[in-house]
């Protein structure tokens, strides 16, 4: 049914532009990094490749948040928790790959466990020496947590600001738990000192380029999946729930089932974003659970354009680019600038940057359609009685 819906509602012009740009970036950035010498004007430095890859992961996180907030009306202030859980899943696999190359040379236990006098590997680390298992956990753990949380929250009809506070409390509780050394996740220092992935060195330029391209591919596939959903009948129900949940329930729809599905799927997408993020930045620690990170993701979506998908990804890239620049140039003013952007977008740009462009294009088309036939696009009237004003 969803496939037929996509055929009836193909990806719009904005979506095709977005996918085309992603495809170009996924090819050009690694190509310019690997083939051109550092002295060349168009060479892309290694640091820039990793930085742009991080932006793409944030864009996928913003896309997952826009799916639940922009189309279902669920304002989650805890999506950073699902992102971090996916990151920890990948980090645990990367730690198991270190083996005897660690500081203490233990073939099984990670260095932090040896330092803390752990005698054996905890049961929840079993299986993470296999990539397929880690990849499964990256999706399954955030998805199961979101399903369990949403099952009780949505069936209890918790909504609005109360649900937002609960999601924020969830990520805060996880942050406190992961900070503890006896949890078995590295405590305050987290997981780091990664060596390789699938046998390929993480320090190699080719590995870095492949991870970048995979991040772009994941963002493109995530967009297509979200687009499939929001243009289907399921998406219409989600929008109805966003605009009038009581009326939708009155029509006979089980609102909690739709909300639970989209919330779980969104968490899984966030987990994938976190898994791609970790090998590119080289570390994962409990600070990723900080509630401020989840709130910042909401700001990305609001600035880019809530309920647009493409706008959410665009907002994540633009805001993080500004953050990278201004935290170096004006570090004491960045947070004020970010807060100001959020206020401006909320008051004056309810559909964000992308919504502003769409509104301007619609206004331009309406003016063109309303103009007399002879005055469109600089045309001259064929009626000799009509003369231009002097």
How would you describe what is shown here?
With 390 residues, this protein is mostly helical. The protein has one domain. It has helices spanning 2-8, 13-35, 46-69, 79-96, 111-115, 131-155, 160-178, 205-230, 233-250, 255-281, 291-304, 310-329, 334-348, 352-370; strands at 191-192, 196-197, 200-201, 283-284. Strands 1-4 form a two-stranded antiparallel ribbon. A two-stranded antiparallel sheet has the order 2-3. A hairpin with a 2-residue loop joins β2 and β3. The radius of gyration is 24 Å and the shape is globular. The termini are far apart. Residues 1-7 and 380-390 have low confidence and may be disordered.
Quickly count the domains. 1
Helical proportion?
55-70%
Question: What is the global morphology?
Answer: globular
What gyration radius follows from the Cα positions, in whole Å?
A: 24 Å
Order of helices and strands: HHHHHHHEEEHHHEHHHH
Distance between the termini: 60 Å
* Main pleated-sheet profile: 2 strands, antiparallel
Oligomer: single chain
Structural class assignment: mainly alpha
Strand content: under 5%
Total number of helices: 14
Strand order, sheet with most strands: 1-4
Mean pLDDT: 88
Tally of strands: 4
Low-pLDDT runs: 1-7, 380-390
